[in-house]
Amino acid sequence: MTRYRAVHRILGFISASAAAGALIAGVAVAQPPPTGPAPVPALDLDRYLGTWNQLAAIPQPFNLECARDTRAEYTQDPQGNIAVHNRCTTWTGGTNEIRGTAKVTDPVTRAQLHVSFPDVPGQDSIDGPPNYIVTALAPDYSWAVVTDPSRLSGFVLAREAALPAPAWRQVRTAIEAAGQSPCFYLTSPTTGGIPDIAPLCLR
Asked: Which of 7, 50, 127, 161 has a CB 3.0–4.6 Å from the CB of 193, allowing a cystine?
């Protein structure tokens, strides 16, 4: 079985598990809070800039091409916004990459941003509502949990390719505090880190 098929089997498992859980629990199913996930109280953008490794994520169509080593690089652009450069190694060993811009939409915390990509329909305008919320952050900026107002996306980012067990426990707690389930996050294979794809709740 190829890794690509394995990803789709895991996606099917997650969808089936979510549906079954809802049917079994009925009205007792825990619902996310009515408001969006809260951003961290204050984000130091200068410290947040740099390279981040994606260690886990809620699967999205655009990252199904990524086999391993998914990274995001953030730098300040001349307009004072953040230049975004996302890249990964594909299943065929090539490189998949995209460039965009992140603009702060929350001047109080600076932890809510609108990320745009010029060639992505519906996401090509530099102005817009927040779609990138830093909802948890290690005090030393060694890891971060990012989601969006709908909670349909989620990313665990880290400066290094691997996190120690205590940090992973903090990450899972942060995901739950944001109104999400760690079971919907799949680990992202990283050279020097986790080598396979599995639901984060099983780690």
From this structure: 161
Q: What is the mean pLDDT of the chain?
A: 87
- How far is the C-alpha of 108 from the C-alpha of 173, rounded, in Å? 25
Mean pLDDT along residues 130-137: 98
Those residues with Cβ within 8 angstroms of residue 99's Cβ, 6 or more apart along the chain or in another chain: 83, 84, 85, 86, 117, 118
DSSP class of residue 80 equals S
Exposure string of 131-165, with b = 16+ CB inside 10 Å and e = fewer, is bbbbbbbbeebebbbbbbeebebbbbbbeeeebee
Q: What is the pLDDT of residues 157-185, one digit of tens each?
A: 999 999 999 999 999 999 999 999 999 99
| pLDDT tens-place string over residues 70-82 | 999 999 999 999 9
Burial annotation 10-36 (CB, 10 A radius, 16+ → b, else e): beeebeeeeeeeeeeeeeeeeeeeeeb
CA distance 69 to 135: 23
Look up tokens 């992505």; give the residue: 120
- The conformation of residue 192, written as its DSSP 8-state character, comes to T
String of DSSP letters for 157-180: EESSS---HHHHHHHHHHHHHTT-
Helix (H, G, I), strand (E, B) or coil at 100: strand
16, pLDDT greater than 90: no
Shortest CA distance to 179 belongs to which of 14, 32, 21? 32
- Nearest alpha carbon to residue 187 among 72, 59, 57: 57
